[in-house]
Amino acid sequence: MRSLTCLALSLLLLTTPALGAAPEPVTRGDFAVLLWQSAGGVPYDVSTCPFSDVGRNTPYAQAVCWAWDEGVIRGVGEGLFAPDRLLTREECAALLRRNDARLGRDTFFPDAGICNDFQDISPWADDSLYWACSTGRMAWLENRLAPCAPVTQAEAEGYFSAPSRF
Description:
By secondary structure, the chain is mainly alpha-helical. It is built from 6 helices and no strands. α2 crosses α3 (61-69) and α4 packs across α5 (126-134).
């Protein structure tokens, strides 16, 4: 039920008319590619990939398999990764935190505060989303964590192209 709520909110946000061009959202597969490229994009054996919905010849197959093997990606359950689903901010925060931990960066965050949309955060993403926003790894959206909001392509690329403070 929780993922359906996030999906519905994401679709609403993406289909609501706005001034100017709408930002391009990023999928889970797209973000896996950005993670992999940030680590050097070394060719990776896709035969060990545990996800039945990741085709071996897709543009994101090597990235997803690498990120799973590195412990960054865990999938959505039942052997699925959902590579074409839009990446939510809470998913992104969890992936960024796991990737930073993989790189040996400090991901400890002792004080989770409360924001005006804390009830919308999935329990598995709570600490990661607070960590990402409070440390500046991700931006707050109008004083909200906005856990179900989709991540845009520009935001996702910014996580890997900006000079790292971490």
